[in-house]
Request: fold
Amino acid sequence: MIRIPLRPLARILRARERGENPDAIEAENRRLRHEAIQDKARRRAEGRLALMASLFVLGFGTVGVRMGALASTDPIEPRSEVMSAQIVSQRADITDRQGRVLATNLLTHSLYAHPHQMVDPVGAARNLARIFPDLDADKLLRDFTGSRKFMWIKRKMSPEQMQAVHDIGEPGLLFGPREMRVYPNGHIASHILGGSGFGNEGVDSAEVLGVAGVEKAFDGWLRDPANDGAPLQLSIDLSVQSAMEQVLASGMEVMSAKGATGILMEIESGEILAMASLPDFDPNDRPRPLLKGDPSDSPLFNRAVQGQYELGSTFKIFPVAQALDLQIINPNSGINTTTPMRIGKYRINDFSNYGPQLSATDVIVKSSNVGTVRIAQMIGVERQKAFLQKLGFFDPLPIEMVEAPTGKPLVPTRWPAVTAATVSFGHGLAASPLHLAAAYATVANGGVKVTPTLIHGRTRPQGERILSERAAARAVDMLRQVVTRGTAKQAEVEGYEVAGKTGTADKPRPSGGYYDNKVVSTFASVFPASAPKYVMIVTLDEPSVTGPGGESRTAGATAAPVASAIIRRLAPLVGLEPVTDENLPVIAPRFAPRVESQPGDELKVSANQ
Amino acid sequence: MRPLTYLACALLVMGLAFWAYRENYRTQAALGEMSQVQREIAQLREDLGVLRAEWAYLNRPDRLRELVDLNFDRLQLIPREAGQVMDLGHIDYPKPPAPQPEVASESSGNPAAPQE
Reply:
């Protein structure tokens, strides 16, 4: 810094020459210097004041904003601050359509050990083996006396077992809280729910992950804290599902079948009310998947969704409905049914000879393979393929289960004339029973596509129209006649106007060709026929029934009576009332119940008058 | 005048300090109470979950079916069948009994009672 001298020599000399007082110069310079110092000090003080002021404004502003925020927010229960609440609400419940619990959580404890903290490892090992019979005392002792610092002993245990372990009094045995998934209804709806297991495990908590079914498909949703613990409401009705499983199990036993499937679905919404696949399992104790052999032998196999069956004559209604829609035929058109029919080197036979000609309705009612092939030939391969594709037989169903993609139908890659012919009566194309349910629902829904779902009350876009309303109504009428005078007479339930189609398909051998004595019999039905509300599919795997006429495996004798029993049981449960011819008298009330208030009824307040 | 002002200011500061002290402890007490209530809520939530699970377990269809079978002698319950529900208009209700004259004046709710 250059300091200006108080008495600059040049100016002093000049002032002396002029005879002026040089001290005035010094005084003037001194004044200027003081002013500069004062200015500097003032600026510093002002800066400090401004800093202080801004700090105060900031501080009070923070307090003010915080107060305002606290005052304006709604009081909420800060749940995340409490540890155990966090654990309990980790995974949302699953309920049925009426809110009955299908899957929930219980807080339990896991047991782990710190062997280096143990006082009496020998006694601890012996006592643990006594409390948990599945543990081996010798192995535990080896672990406890070895070099391990930490080991899990039990993933979850009951409160009684926990108390018993506590009573051992061993400081090296420790408990960690665990959330456990519970399915209170046991095996009911087991395939839909799937099951759950533990993911990442820590001492304080463990992730509960879905391993199959809805639990896995909605794993992210169920674990999302943003849903605030809202349950996942399925379209399943617990009582309907339970009744279906019961009736289906007894039907399976009577028909000595290996497995059975039942699906009940609402037509308009596509919501599945009940979907059973037998044999089933208990999701609380999920069996291990089979590592070898046929996966369909495992109880884990969901026949309704994963099963790929050639569904037989139940398919016949599709070419007929399409031909009605294209106005190639009408229900009374005569169809040539001379059997056998030749396509190239293949022969197509009917179950019995139905004569040279049947009406289109009778082709369905009597289930004529030849008649259906003739109708399919009128439609043509390309249109037939396109129609089946629109009905959804070429793709896996978009149902909310993790198994859905494995149920992709087995569609032939090439469609020569003979394939088109066999597909028209349900052979050569293997689809799951749920595909069939969706396709029947589409026909019964006036031709508007129905997509099945397991979630209750979700708004979904309207499906596209596949059939004209008139063709769909005529197809349902034909299905009704199958039950009144055709192959499915045993499926009739008085009052519920069951309309349906039987299908008996030979089971394919794994080595190629078909078994002679093993069939899959299916009954696909719609009821009530006058205003279809529900679709029901019953499929029995390898049924056989011995009646007065000897052993029978046809669907009319096996699946149809089971379906009738199920409808008889389920229809009242879903609140469907039978249509009867009986004309009950309407009785006029003999007195008018006085419910509304009459003059003079009102409360009189006499004190005011 | 000035000493009085000083005294007043000192008293004011002491008063405010006392108030702030009390507010501080009251806030801490309220916070403690809140966390206590939260723990209680968490416990109750947990209990509620257990009760819901127990309710669902006790009302599982298999158990109800067994109970119905066990108590068939007394209850005689069978699955609901078609035709068990009908319209109210088809039911002939019996006429209510004619009211006794002395009771009639009291039971004004009885539809057959004569109007006063």
About this structure: Residues 22-72 of chain A form the longest helix (51 residues). The longest strand of chain A covers residues 514-527.
